[in-house]
Write a structure and sequence with these properties.
It holds the Pfam family HET. It is built from 10 helices and 13 strands. The chain has helices at residues 52-57, 66-77, 86-89, 95-102, 105-110, 174-181, 227-234, 249-261, 277-284, 300-303, and strands spanning 6-9, 17-22, 32-36, 59-60, 82-84, 114-117, 140-146, 150-156, 185-189, 194-198, 202-204, 291-292, 295-296. The strands form 3 sheets. The protein has a 9-stranded mixed sheet, sandwiched between helices. The protein has a two-stranded antiparallel ribbon with strand order 7-8. β12 (291-292) and β13 form a beta hairpin. α7 packs across α8. The longest helix is centred in the last third of the chain and has 13 residues, at 249-261. 30% of the residues are buried.
């Protein structure tokens, strides 16, 4: 087992406090959960140098933002003792601590037992649980007459159930992309139903066992950078009829990740490479290659062939370069906007 520098000890159901646990002092027992949430510009309870001691002594659950408090409830219901929340486990007014901890994100999310995703929440006060109308008269059937087969009863469902998660507030944030891909299990709280995903399957309340293949779309990101999944999902015929060598699959997966990443919003422009560094570390485990500001040395001639999209983004802006340096101009990371 591997543990983050700090975790929240959520105690048991009758406890009114949670406590900050520094794992170097005493190693936790059992697994831990993580929370993906959107800060949203609202007031967020943070761990800072001034309240570090008081966090170790205990924080009242009723003083937590709603999303955090409900994440504690979920952790307890799953009989897990520890929870990791970035704003409460990284010292937010310490540049040194933030830099150190940001380099551990690949491990934090790769070793979590389950990632709780506040997918539909605009900020930490929006919560995970929400009132929603029940799915009416589910399941849905319709009788159709098909020429070759006569009358058939057909099952009707939304064609891209899992893909609809991409349009929810959390999944539009750049930092969250690696939080979707790295964990082995994800539980997403959408505005209509719960979704869950692991290395083998995706499910939801409408389809508890597994989603129909056509409902997954390209949004099943969490499984897509396992070596076997890369081979399964990215093997294709070129126009000449030749197969792409398996050694190239991780690089294609990286291009796919970057394409998705560049459509997501980032509050601090200087975080462009940091916020995807966990995924770069995961890819680097599949290839013996040098990572160069978002590109890979052995594929450098090919990966230099990128261009800026002229499309207007969702916030009304077009692609541009930030005024302050953050990457060489030959790297896509030097651009703000779609490529």
């Amino acid at each position: 087992p591997w543990y983050p520098t700090r975790l929240l000890d959520v105690g048991i159901n009758s406890d009114s406090l949670i406590k900050l646990h520094t794992t170097s002092f005493s190693e936790p027992q059992g697994p831990y959960l993580t929370l993906s949430h959107r800060w949203g510009g609202e007031h967020v309870l943070k761990l800072i140098s001034g309240n570090l001691e008081s966090f170790h002594n205990g924080v009242a659950i009723n003083s937590l933002p709603r999303t955090f408090a409900e994440a504690v409830e979920i952790t307890r219901r799953l009989n897990i003792r520890h929870l990791w929340i970035d704003s409460l486990c990284i010292i937010q007014d310490s540049i040194g601590d933030w830099r150190k901890e940001s380099l551990l994100m690949e491990k934090v999310y790769s070793h979590t037992h389950l990632n709780i995703s506040a997918t539909a929440s605009e900020n930490c006060h929006s919560g995970l649980f929400r009132s929603r109308p029940p799915i009416p008269d589910w399941p849905w059937f319709v009788d159709l007459t098909v020429e070759e087969h006569g009358k058939k009863r057909c099952f009707i469902y939304p064609s891209n159930l899992l893909g609809s998660l991409d349009d929810l507030p959390l999944n539009k944030r750049a930092w969250v992309l690696q939080e979707r891909i790295l964990p082995t299990r994800i539980l997403s709280f959408s505005d209509t139903q719960l979704f869950w995903e692991c290395r083998k399957t995706q499910g939801c309340e409408m389809f508890p066992e597994h989603l129909p293949l056509t409902a997954c779309g390209d949004a099943a990101l969490s499984r897509c950078i396992e070596p076997s999944a890369i081979e399964e999902r990215l093997r294709f015929n070129s126009s000449s009829g030749n197969y792409l060598p398996p050694s190239q699959y991780p690089y294609l997966m990286w291009y796919f990740i970057v394409d998705n990443y560049m459509t997501c919003g980032l509050t601090k422009m200087e975080d462009k490479l940091v916020a995807i560094s966990g995924l770069a570390k995961r890819i680097s485990k599949l290839v013996n290659d040098d990572y160069l500001a978002g590109l890979w040395r052995s594929t450098l001639p090919t990966s230099l062939v990128w261009e800026v999209s002229n499309c207007i983004q969702s916030d009304g802006t077009t692609s541009s370069r930030p005024p302050q340096y953050r990457a060489p101009t030959w790297s896509w990371a030097s651009v703000e906007g779609m490529i």
